[in-house]
Amino acid sequence: MGIIPVSERASWNASFGGPGIMSGPLSGPWYSTHKTQLLGVLLAAASNLLISVSLNIQKCAHLRLVCQTELKPYYTSKLWWCGITLLGLGEVGNFAAYGFAPITLVTPLGCVSVIGSAFISVFFLKKTMKTADILGGTLTVTGTYLLVTFAPNVPQELTARQVQNYLVSWPFLVYSILEILIFCILLYFYKRKAVKHIVVLLMMVALLASMTVIAVKAVSSMITLSVKGKMQLTYSIFYIMVALMASSCAFQVKFLNQAMHLYEATAVVPINFVFFTTSAIISGVIFYREFQSAAFLSVFMFLFGCLLSFLGVFIIARNKKEEHLQIPFIDCGHIPGHKLTGKIQPDSHSSCYGTLNKEDDLVKSQS
Known about the structure:
This protein folds into two domains: 27-154 and 296-324, no CATH class; 157-289. 70% of the residues lie in helices and 0% in strands. The chain has 13 helices and no strands. Helix 2 (29-67) packs across helix 5 (111-124) and helix 5 (111-124) runs parallel beside helix 12 (296-325). It is globular.
């Protein structure tokens, strides 16, 4: 075999992403075309990891307050405020990530917070790591890798005029009409028929979330361009998108809180993640046309990565549900300010099972 000349080898490396002459490992064409998207991926992953840390810190702060003899409001805890600060930073980072990466890539990376919470809780809350956690984490990490690898590579610099054109395009108008009809039907059953099934509630959350992510990406992109010197904040569409983002987010939180109040978090979290991610991907494909020129294999592998992430989140959430069910009753001896004076779990074969003894009967029985 002959030796490839230096000039030809440099040209080959430049064409296929290899290192060229006097260049580093990230100097190939892949990095030059994906560096903005890679920044968004890293920002979204780090932000979701920060959110999982913040949630565990808040949980730790609540547990510390419960164990104290004198109950204090949670907002007096410095640890709780530390968790809230990290949560705010994580949400700001997620918001900024939409300005650098497509919706179809940023939204599924929310699974990082789920697997992050499962592993970080081992250190903060002293929970035990189970095989289901490792399996779910492995599936989620594998799915995340496929998402990042086969995500659409589309330009992320969105001007106000581009957003205006997308807003009046016929695919989005048809999509908006269908979404409004479905939302009105669900709202009718929720308000008039008092149907508060978890699927109904989280479907409404997902429909609102699709509008939220569209507005968030538009606002984030226009702010990013304005910071770079291309002012976009003078266009009215920017403020329209800000209003859409705020209103849809407010109603989204309302229905999500209703679901959290009626159902266990172990059921709400995975279902909401699947619905939210699916609606966000659909809205990104229709509004921003993110898969317009993608190959069939890339689309298939991307969807397969989503499926693996969904499965991993469900396995982790199911494992948490089984841990919760292992506690058969409340240990009243651990309630602050109360002493343990009798049996916590009464004898089911006793004649007084399910009733409370009067104090005078207790005295008579002791005498």
